[in-house]
Amino acid sequence: MANRPTQDEPSSQPHGRTIDLSACLGLYCESATTRKCHFLRKMPNIKVFAGSSHVELAQKVVDRLGIHLGRVVLKKFSNQETCVEVGESVRGEDVYIIQSGCGEVNDNLMELLIMINACKIASASRVTAVIPCFPYAIAPFNCGRLALSFQLFTCPVAGADHIITMDLHASQIQGFFDIPVDNLYAEPAVLKWVRENIPEWRTSIIVSPDAGV
């Protein structure tokens, strides 16, 4: 078996691959069978649902876990109001809803809130909102008469029991919630991918502007 590339010996694999952000959530085991057996022993009553913002990411997460993506119907009425229908029982289950704040931010946020409410009404034992890109979080704290927009939905999102997000623009945002907020960092996964896939990584520069700029 070939040795894994070290920091001094980066891999020469092709560059046309994408960074798997699901690895940032710690969802990694050696094989699909091992993943499923190991994970289901620790968390047997889990359901993962995807909002419409990033179905591909949610699918990668459940593939790593060795479980199926939960069924949910997301649609709009003729007046553009959002409608959510959970397509399977979540009674007594530990529910994770993956919905990013990029793209159609307002629609995605409203969809997330309705999904949280739908799962709560359906007697889910616990609901975790996984929000890789937290919406309305880039406003500075030191500007007078500037709205802190994220405060408007800290209470509605807190209908969930737990929030998982990534690389918050300001760590102080965690203090506005009355529930646990895990702020994960993508940097370790990004650096690992760069070292393994870009031979000239030592002389490369990574530029990452804020989402929405």
TrEMBL record:
<dbReference type="GO" id="GO:0005524">
    <property type="term" value="F:ATP binding"/>
</dbReference>
<dbReference type="GO" id="GO:0005737">
    <property type="term" value="C:cytoplasm"/>
</dbReference>
<comment type="similarity">
    <text>Belongs to the ribose-phosphate pyrophosphokinase family.</text>
</comment>
<keyword id="KW-0808">Transferase</keyword>
<dbReference type="GO" id="GO:0006164">
    <property type="term" value="P:purine nucleotide biosynthetic process"/>
</dbReference>
<keyword id="KW-0479">Metal-binding</keyword>
<keyword id="KW-0547">Nucleotide-binding</keyword>
<dbReference type="GO" id="GO:0006015">
    <property type="term" value="P:5-phosphoribose 1-diphosphate biosynthetic process"/>
</dbReference>
<dbReference type="GO" id="GO:0002189">
    <property type="term" value="C:ribose phosphate diphosphokinase complex"/>
</dbReference>
<keyword id="KW-0460">Magnesium</keyword>
<keyword id="KW-0545">Nucleotide biosynthesis</keyword>
<comment type="pathway">
    <text>Metabolic intermediate biosynthesis; 5-phospho-alpha-D-ribose 1-diphosphate biosynthesis; 5-phospho-alpha-D-ribose 1-diphosphate from D-ribose 5-phosphate (route I): step 1/1.</text>
</comment>
<dbReference type="InterPro" id="IPR029057">
    <property type="entry name" value="PRTase-like"/>
</dbReference>
<keyword id="KW-0067">ATP-binding</keyword>
<dbReference type="GO" id="GO:0016301">
    <property type="term" value="F:kinase activity"/>
</dbReference>
<protein>
    <recommendedName>
        <fullName>ribose-phosphate diphosphokinase</fullName>
        <ecNumber>2.7.6.1</ecNumber>
    </recommendedName>
</protein>
<dbReference type="InterPro" id="IPR029099">
    <property type="entry name" value="Pribosyltran_N"/>
</dbReference>
<dbReference type="GO" id="GO:0004749">
    <property type="term" value="F:ribose phosphate diphosphokinase activity"/>
</dbReference>
<dbReference type="InterPro" id="IPR005946">
    <property type="entry name" value="Rib-P_diPkinase"/>
</dbReference>
<keyword id="KW-0418">Kinase</keyword>
<dbReference type="GO" id="GO:0000287">
    <property type="term" value="F:magnesium ion binding"/>
</dbReference>
<feature type="domain" description="Ribose-phosphate pyrophosphokinase N-terminal">
    <location>
        <begin position="46"/>
        <end position="137"/>
    </location>
</feature>
<dbReference type="InterPro" id="IPR000842">
    <property type="entry name" value="PRib_PP_synth_CS"/>
</dbReference>
<dbReference type="Pfam" id="PF13793">
    <property type="entry name" value="Pribosyltran_N"/>
</dbReference>
<dbReference type="GO" id="GO:0009156">
    <property type="term" value="P:ribonucleoside monophosphate biosynthetic process"/>
</dbReference>
